[in-house]
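Data card: per-record layout.
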Amino acid sequence: MKILVTGGAGFIGSNLVDALINQGHQVKVLDNLSTGKKENINSKADFVLVDITDLEAIKPHFQGIDYVFHVAALPRVQLSIEDPIKTHQININGTLNILLAARDAKVKKVIYSASSSALGSNKNLPAREDFLPIPISPYALQKYVGEHYCRLFSLLYDLPTVSLRYFNVYGPRMAFSGAYLTVIAVFLQQKKEGKKLTITGDGSQTRDFTFVSDVVAANILAMENEKIGHGEVFNIGCGDNHSVNEIAKLMKGETENIPPRIEPHDGLADITKAKEILGWQPKIKIEEGIKRTVDWFNFLF
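The structure for this 301-residue chain is written out next.
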């Protein structure tokens, strides 16, 4: 198959590109390298340096493409608050451009990387896909709008789409800046600098951490499943959550507590729908995932 991955130089995108190439697919990567790194791009991929906000520039690259994975985004919450226009242009206008180009090229399906941040202040747990999102930042709203654009393009233009809502993704090539930076990344940086691991509040707050290879597997299953493509939304998490204190213990570092901040206390995905329809099951437990991430980080530095 001929596959296009936007944001293929980034954390999740580059891991996805590697997996697709390992399966024997021809992969084209579109990335402007604003947050991604050229060294992340698989040497067997066809790399195009381009910005998804430029519709005319990206359209030719969709010709002959079978499937599109739209992973590119500007995942910065604070920047979206300070400069909502810039992040809107990338996260909403860019997504619209991808869908227009895919529609016109008659691709078989678009798989959109959505975000659990769309749920915002909804405190009902575990979070199901049909819960009412209450975004609390422009970034979260922008990612939620992308879900609805996908649904509308399936409804109005017969373009098959699927949205995958990621929960706290971590693993090799993970970002150390951006939206909803995982505590795992923070702890890795602090250990590298010889600092204590800072725990906000009492450390009892929990998150649903998802290893990147499991996210990649969900994307590929969404591509291969011929029964879906009507704008469906799937939670992609582990269906299990762990406290900050647990993560610190696994990271084996000295800790210190700092004042609490305003944030959701807990996060947990209901992944029943992904299990039943996608046939997806997360495989990497937190202990194994952190070990792999630490090994990668230590090798990197």
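Known properties of this structure: The two ends are 36 Å apart (CA to CA). The chain has two domains: 2-169+211-237+270-278, 171-207+241-267+285-300.

See the next section for split statistics.
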